Please model this.
Amino acid sequence: GDSVTQMEGPVTLSEEAFLTINCTYTATGYPSLFWYVQYPGEGLQLLLKATKADDKGSNKGFEATYRKETTSFHLEKGSVQVSDSAVYFCALRTDSSYKLIFGSGTRLLVRP
Amino acid sequence: EAGVAQSPRYKIIEKRQSVAFWCNPISGHATLYWYQQILGQGPKLLIQFQNNGVVDDSQLPKDRFSAERLKGVDSTLKIQPAKLEDSAVYLCASSLYGQEQETQYFGPGTRLLVL
Model:
């Protein structure tokens, strides 16, 4: 069945470091791909999305490119801030069911 | 624009008791979702409503869980009787039409602890 695999956390970085969180997926057809973020004490928020191969989603300095050949959607940011500390979830949605299928989440901790 | 509202935010019950959660989606959103998020895992869809009809409840444990959305607006999710493994955060989300590329907006969740 459809699934999402994320790198395990926690990921601990110093402020201004480069961030990569790996995400790969298994799905039939052509899913849409999403990154959601969950800040402490808050609900899930959409960070960015891509709906077809080679699309790049971007928001708040974060980027992810939909790579169909490697079935990946890795999240990157050039310079992280303390305020980026949160749990990041990769997710997919297929046109056959429309439900979101999430990875297990990756906790990011950014130190000053 | 008001977001998705949920209550209560926290609930502690003993096993075999019953509990209910309430969700009010964003105004005008036809599609409503309930997800279960167990600690250390990603959210898992329990049930999806389109207006007041059920679209997908394939992962809802129907022997103990029930949900309704009577007037196509707010919704309640009930567990009766609760088990220890039901301890989780229950997230409600809504979207405009429920289509593939739409954004789902999530509420803050209800954290349930079953003792």
Chain B touches chain A at residues 3-4, 33, 40-45, 48, 55-56, 91, 93, 98-101, 103-109 (CB under 8 Å).
